[in-house]
Amino acid sequence: MFLLRSNSLRTKLPQRKVFQHLCRQLASSHREIPALTKERYPVKRGQFDEVSDSDVAKFESILGGSSRVLTQAEDIQGYNIDYMGSVRGYSRVVLKPKSTEEVSEILKYCNERKLAVCPQGGNTGLVGGSVPVFDEVVLSLSLMDKIEKIDEYSGILVCQAGCVLGSLEDKVNEKGLVMPLDLGAKGSCHIGGNVSTNAGGLRLVRYGNLHGSVLGVEAVTAEGRIMDLMSDFKKDNTGYHLKHLFIGSEGTLGIITKLSIFCPTASKSVNVAFLGLENYDAVKNTFLSAKRGLGEILSSCEMIDAGSLESSTYHFNLQSPIEKYPFYMLIETSGSNMVHDEEKLTNFLESSMENGLVLDGTVTNEPTKMRNIWKLRELIADSLINDGYCFKYDISLPLDNFYDIVLATRERVGSLATKVTGYGHIGDSNLHLNVSCPKFTPEIYKLLEPFVYEYTSKVRGSVSAEHGIGFLKTKYLKYSKRPESLMLMQQMKQMMDPNGILNPYKVLPQI
Predict the structure, then answer these.
(1) Strand (E) positions, 365-418?
(2) Which of the listed residues 203, 217, 326, 463 has the most CB atoms within 10 Å of its CB?
(3) Does residue 201 come out as left (phi exceeding 0), alpha (psi in the -120 to 50 range) or beta?
(4) How far is CA 308 from the centre of its chain?
(5) Cα distance between residue 108 and residue 373, in whole Å
(6) Comparing C-alpha atoms, which of 475, 486, 481 is closest to residue 457?
(7) What is the rounded CA–CA span in Å between residue 431 and residue 423?
(8) Which of 144, 150, 154 is nearest to 169 (CA)?
(9) What is the spatial order of strands in the sheet that 147-151 belongs to?
(10) With contact defined as beta carbons under 8 Å apart, do 162 and 143 qualify?
(11) Quick one: angle between helices 306-315 and 367-378, nearest 10?
């Protein structure tokens, strides 16, 4: 039966920067430094020059001294390793500009010298897109964190690319607005990186993806040209929408330095339900029922399997509010009328239990309880890497085949894996398939790839739902893009970055 709800309301989920930082420290504390990317994966270094002492001196002159030019090994190690510990480069210099003009000068010089550049935000990506593959110059935008304006009337936020997503959420909440993007990594990920990868997140079912929310960008091309594509209007129908070239291109066509984004009005009435279900068919049918019964107030719809929840509760000492079930759903509603929203949610839950879809659950609008329920979902990704190494696959699949790949993968890898689990955004068909094992081995890697992507392609899914292609998926892009599309993408890259210095080895397959 359902637990009683509290009468207090939430207007936002508080920013969890410190908590998530501690979680990541815990999750990574026992892991070994990964092998160099060039040793673990077959990849050939491009025809780029190597950074010299004179180059470092030039960078120092552009950035006004050595304080924003990192060259000591102990200072730059974290910039060379991705969050997952799956790839590692060996860059010898990290640059930290504060302005678009400095980014422009850096890229202009690197293009002339044919020095490869790896742009980096919060380095929370899962596909190796934000760290160097070899010795690329790391261009960190962490100091470009100014908020230029928040217009509470239009809902427009204008900020630099290095702003942390969680900090932006706090600031727009103060104006009665909400960020259209919400991620488990929001305590450290940068909005520029989010836009560059077209990140999806927990609210996509309500607010759509960033191609719709981002109104304009400022970006710097490989040759150092500053492209002012900013706009403060949702209606700006003036020819080619060039901003879309940079949204989702993962820094391969240009580096986003500033953006404007539409932030909807924050909901006054928020409720969270955590449900227990017997099988995936019940999950699928409950989602359909939620869409029909909750309609415009449905803001998130997440699926979690038993293994994922067990990992989250065990590694972070959390408590599930309901007993053990094979599947769980986390449903959030957001509206403006508490009485109306609660009536719709109550009707939906009663109907779901009467027809046997939902076996148990809890529902609340009390802030602390809602935060605790969301932690169960948000900390799954961190918890799964505690087993040693975790192969993570971010894919879109038809809902009829959504969970089948978890079962097929579990059978394929057998005892080589500690666990094979699946969770994700069923509201937008995005599954996170995870294979945990004691350590990375070629044996299990070859069992998984290209199997996972071939399986995804057979059911006409997408090999990347929201984390991009990065380095790890370049050779699998062909499973979701036809040759004609790949050729046009290569031509666009050649036109906008003729020397290929921007985030090389990423997104596009090597020719």
Answers:
(1) 389-396
(2) 217
(3) left
(4) 18
(5) 48
(6) 481
(7) 6
(8) 150
(9) 147-151, 156-160, 255-262, 214-220, 226-229
(10) yes
(11) 110
CA torsion angle 132 136 142 143 (round to 10): 170
d(CA 32, CA 19): 23
Cα–Cα distance for residue pair 477/479, rounded to 1 Å: 5
3-state secondary structure of 275: strand
**If you search the block for the tokens 């309901």, which residue do you land on?**
322
Beta bridge partners of 232: none
- Contact 408/372 with Cβ under 8 angstroms? no
Confidence of residue 31 (pLDDT cuts 50, 70, 90): low
SS3 391: strand
User: H or E element: which one contains 430?
Assistant: strand 430-437
| DSSP 8-state class, residue 150 | E
Give Cα 500 to chain centroid, integer Å: 25
CA-to-CA distance for 373 and 364, rounded, in angstroms? 9
- Distance set, CA 169 to CA 13, 59, 273, 366 (Å): 9, 33, 23, 20
Output the DSSP codes for 76-143: HHHHHB-TTSS-B---S-EE--SSHHHHHHHHHHHHHHT--EEEESS---SSS-SS-SSSPEEEE-TT
Amino acid at 504: P
Q: If you count DSSP H runs as helices and E runs as strands, how many of each does the chain have, helices first? A: 19, 17
| 368-373 LR contacts (CB < 8 Å, sep 24+) | 369/6, 369/272, 369/321, 370/10, 370/13, 370/270, 370/272, 371/13, 371/14, 372/318, 372/319, 372/321, 373/272, 373/274, 373/321, 373/330
55 φ, ψ to 5°?
-65, -45
Kindly state the helix (H) or strand (E) to which residue 219 belongs, with its residue range.
strand 214-220
The pLDDT assigned to 11 comes to 29
Q: Tell whether the model's pLDDT for residue 3 goes beyond 50.
A: no
Core vs surface per residue 474-502: b (16+ CB within 10 A) or e = bbbbbbbbeeeeeeebeeebeebbebbbb
User: Taking a C-beta distance cutoff of 8 angstroms, is the pair 374, 330 a contact?
Assistant: yes
pLDDT tens string 406-433: 999 999 999 999 999 999 999 999 999 9
Give the pLDDT of residue 420: 98
Helix (H) or strand (E) holding 447: helix 442-448
Which residue is listed with tokens 């552009």? 62
Describe the chain by its helix, strand, coil percentages, rounded to 5. 40, 20, 40
At 359, list the tokens. 């076996």
Q: How many Cβ atoms are within 10 Å of 185's Cβ, its own excluded?
A: 25
